[in-house]
Design a protein that fits this description.
Elements (H helix, E strand, L loop, with lengths): L12 E4 L10 E5 L6 E6 L3 H20 L2 H17 L1 H12 L3 H26 L3 E3 L7 E9 L2 E5 L7 H12 L3 E5 L5 H13 L7 E3 L4 H9 L4 E5 L2 H14 L3 E4 L4 E5 L5 H13 L9 E7 L3 H14 L19 H15 L3 E4 L14 E4 L6 H4 L6 E7 L2 H9 L3 E2 L1 E5 L3 H8 L6 E4 L16 E2 L2 E2 L4 H7 L1 E9 L15 H15 L4 H8 L1
Parallel strand pairs: 6-7, 6-9, 7-8, 9-10, 11-12, 11-17, 12-15, 14-15, 17-18
Antiparallel strand pairs: 1-2, 2-3, 4-5, 5-21, 10-20, 13-14, 16-19
Helix pairs in contact: 1-7, 2-4, 3-4, 3-6, 4-5, 9-10
Keywords: Oxidoreductase
Organism: Polyangium jinanense
GO molecular function, one term: oxidoreductase activity, acting on the aldehyde or oxo group of donors, NAD or NADP as acceptor
Length: about 525
């Protein structure tokens, strides 16, 4: 087997010990992006420790997977209750380690995780129940589908939502009867440690949910330890490498990767709602959201009014240290994204665009970048074609909705998209033609916290689904059991020996069953 190579984050996190800036680091130091304050240290998990963690998880899974699904649901709800009981300390840590506003830490992280646990604890007994498939031809047999745990699920999670995203996948995996090993981002290691602390405090099996902090080599070691399933949320580049490593080892996986969500503003769009949606969808979590509004295609009849209102609302946003005050926009979690933002803006300006609001780093301490609106953009600019993952919203004027649709689909990414129009039926028809895993009409971002529906992308945005019934069943091996309805005796007509007489009967049966207007078609029409 070849060695797995994964990205190693840098910036507000540094290793210590030999090779402090490389993979030989033995510790991860976490700094507050809003202040630069050292928040704590976490030991890097060695490859041997990762392997032992997976082995312990596998042993713990045997007993957990044998429990009735209803009992697993009850125990996961104990975890949810522990999260709710300790909401203040979780929110405080999210605010400090991520630099995100307190409202977003509460609503987008803790509340979403609690809701996912609640929803799926109720749904799992039904979704994972065995069910019969009615066979259309082999009526002498009955077929049943069973959903069995995969075993050990490896979750490789990102830094933008370090509480909600790993727990989203972990909760579904646990309800399905699996054990979970999480490799959190090295940029936000303390949040994962807090989640593990809360899990243990609920009296749940410690080895069933484990955290293996570290850099890229730790994630590589996790895959090399041969888990039974891998879920990655991350960049397209990392997704390609992890998917290749999983493919080499025949490990099934789900890849939730980058996005470049377009927003189509139709000629009849409600200007005020659309403008507020763009500002919220573009600058929530400082734009560090895979489903952020990353490009706006505004119909010429509404473009100027919409752009002006977006600029006004953007200038009203309060940005600052969320641990000191209530703000709308916090810090940039991973400092590299500031460099990315600056390159996108420089490229756009060089090619004729105009900055209407923001456009630069904020002076003073901390990792802050001003919420930015850019006008006069086109597909020759990287800001319209490459993922930004920062607080930048580029505008492009279009003459028709068909032009907007063509440009929206002109992307290698396809995670989320948005359509705004006063005519819901018209907007829905347009949404159905957009190439994306999810399209929202007159709304933004909310599907990321809607457990009822599947979440995931197409094209280079990945494959497989999180959440929804599809996401829960992704955590299972599908097992088909076929049972005879009536005995066929010892001489089954489909078995040996083959004779000329039996061939003739089967040939006549073929014509009777499948010829135009054949027996099966007529039965189907009757039923």
């Amino acid at each position: 087997m070849g060695q797995v190579v994964m990205d190693r984050g840098a910036g507000n996190v540094a290793g210590s010990g030999p090779g402090a800036n490389g993979h030989a680091a033995t510790k991860i130091r976490s700094y507050a992006p809003a202040t630069g304050e050292l928040l704590g240290e976490v030991k890097v998990t060695s490859a041997d420790e990762v392997k032992r963690a997976v082995e312990r998880a596998r042993r713990a899974q045997e007993a957990w997977g044998a429990l009735p699904v209803e009992e697993r649901c009850e125990r996961v709800l104990r975890f949810r209750d522990a999260i709710v009981d300790r909401v203040d300390e979780i929110v405080d840590l999210l605010v400090r380690e991520c630099g995100k506003p307190r409202h977003e830490a509460l609503l987008h992280e803790v509340m979403v995780a609690a809701d996912i646990a609640t929803f799926f604890a109720k749904a799992a007994p039904r979704v994972l129940a065995p069910h019969e498939i009615k066979l259309h031809l082999m009526k002498h047999r009955r077929s049943f589908i069973h959903y069995k745990p995969r075993g050990v699920v490896a979750v490789i999670s990102p830094w933008n939502y370090p509480f909600q995203l790993p727990l989203r996948d972990a909760i579904l995996a646990l309800l399905a009867g699996n054990a979970v090993v999480i490799k959190p981002s090295e940029v936000t290691p303390l949040i994962a440690q807090k989640a593990k602390e809360v899990w243990d405090s609920a009296g749940l099996p410690e080895d069933l949910l484990q955290i293996v902090p570290g850099f890229g080599p730790t994630g590589a070691a996790l895959i090399e330890a041969q888990p039974d399933f891998v879920i990655l949320t991350g960049s397209v580049a990392t997704g390609r490498r992890v998917a290749a490593a999983c493919g080499e080892r025949l490990i099934p996986c789900v890849m939730e990767l980058g996005g470049k969500a377009p927003l189509i503003a139709c000629a009849d769009a409600d200007v005020e709602r659309t403008a507020r949606a763009i500002v919220f969808g573009g600058f929530s979590n400082s734009g560090q959201v895979c489903v952020s509004v990353e490009r706006v295609y505004a119909h010429r009849e509404v473009h100027d009014k919409l752009l002006d209102r977006v600029v006004e609302l953007t200038r009203e946003l309060r940005q600052g240290d969320p641990s000191a005050e209530f703000v709308d926009v916090g810090a940039i979690i991973f400092p590299h994204q500031i460099d990315v933002a600056e390159k996108h803006i420089a490229d756009a300006l060089q090619k004729g665009a105009t900055v209407r609001a923001g456009g630069k780093r904020r002076e003073g301490p901390g990792q802050f970048f001003e919420p930015t609106v850019i006008d006069g953009c086109n597909h020759q600019m990287t800001v319209m074609t490459e993922e930004i993952f920062g607080p930048i919203v580029p505008f492009m004027r279009v003459s028709t909705e068909e032009e907007a649709l063509r440009l929206a689909n002109d992307s290698h990414l396809g995670l989320n998209a948005y359509v705004f129009s006063r005519d819901r039926d018209h907007a829905t028809r347009l949404a159905e033609r957009v190439d994306a895993g999810s399209v929202l009409v007159n709304d933004v971002l909310t599907n990321g916290g809607t457990p009822d529906t599947p979440f995931g992308g197409i094209k280079a945005s990945g494959f497989g689904r999180a959440m929804g019934e599809e996401g829960l069943r992704e955590m299972c091996n599908i097992k088909h059991v076929s049972v005879e309805r009536v005995g066929m005796g010892s001489k089954d007509p489909l078995w040996f020996p083959y004779t000329a007489q039996s061939y003739g009967w089967f040939r006549k049966g073929l014509r009777a069953l499948f010829s135009g207007g054949g027996l099966l078609q007529r039965i189907g029409e009757i039923l």
